[in-house]
Amino acid sequence: MQGLDFTPFIVSLKLAFITTIVLFFVVLPFAWNLSQSKSKFKPLIQSICALPLVLPPTVMGFYILFAFSKNSFIGGFLYEHFGIQLVFTFWGLVFASCIYSLPFMFQPLLSGFESLNKNVIEASYLSGKSKFTTLFKVALPNIKPSLLTALVVTFAHTIGEFGIVLMVGGGVSGETKVASIAIYEFSEILDFKSAHIYSFIMLVMSFVVLLSVYLFNQKAKK
């Protein structure tokens, strides 16, 4: 293992951590309000949020490249007036990852909120508690398995991203080269020893993350 650069793992963990935190605070109030809604547009909103599950990452990556490159209207405006460049930068990866990992945060939280006993929520409102208090003091403590699943699976999924990361971030060392990109590059140059080491570390990390979710959920059901 001597001589290997493990910076891609640091970039991967940093990307996954930031993406998970951003999605949690963005999706939490959105999923909560949608779970309480009876709007006829609810299926449409759910379909849009779940779209990354079935849409090829290269398609999403292409449209992000198209929309935010310096040659596009949006990308050119952001760069010219604010100095913001999303393509081939770390924060561009964060933006792309938030879109692509959205369903993994959204679906568990929405399912958890919808499974809550409506009487408990109504009792909280009748006792004078605000929506904010009801969300954090009543709803969240009662959907701990769903909450943990949303956080952990979003984190794990972001670590394993490849297609959209390659499209939007490329492979800039120390900036956008995550572990999955490093494995791909090792394979291209036939450095299978390094690819095996990186792949094994990714395998162990993914397994440990998923095992922790299942163990917690099993314990929570007892």
From TrEMBL:
Stretches that traverse the bilayer: 6-32, 44-66, 86-106, 147-168, 195-216
Quote the cellular component terms of the Gene Ontology held in the record. Answer: plasma membrane
**Function recorded in the entry:** Part of the binding-protein-dependent transport system for molybdenum; probably responsible for the translocation of the substrate across the membrane.
What is the similarity comment for this entry?
Belongs to the binding-protein-dependent transport system permease family. CysTW subfamily.
Q: Name one GO molecular function term.
A: molybdate ion transmembrane transporter activity
- For this UniProt record, give its keywords in alphabetical order, as a comma-separated list: Cell membrane, Membrane, Molybdenum, Transmembrane, Transmembrane helix, Transport
- Every ABC transmembrane type-1 domain range: 9-213
Under Pfam families, the record lists: BPD_transp_1
Does the record's keyword annotation contain Cytoplasm? no
Q: Its topology with respect to the membrane? A: Multi-pass membrane protein
Q: Which InterPro entries match?
A: MetI-like, MetI-like_sf, ModB_ABC
This chain belongs to which protein, by name? Molybdenum transport system permease
Q: Which NCBIfam families is this protein grouped with?
A: modB_ABC
Record organism: Campylobacter ureolyticus ACS-301-V-Sch3b
Record's keyword annotation contains Nucleus: no
Q: Which PROSITE patterns match?
A: ABC_TM1
The taxonomy runs:
Bacteria, Pseudomonadati, Campylobacterota, Epsilonproteobacteria, Campylobacterales
Q: Which domain of life is it from?
A: Bacteria
The record's subcellular locations are:
Cell membrane
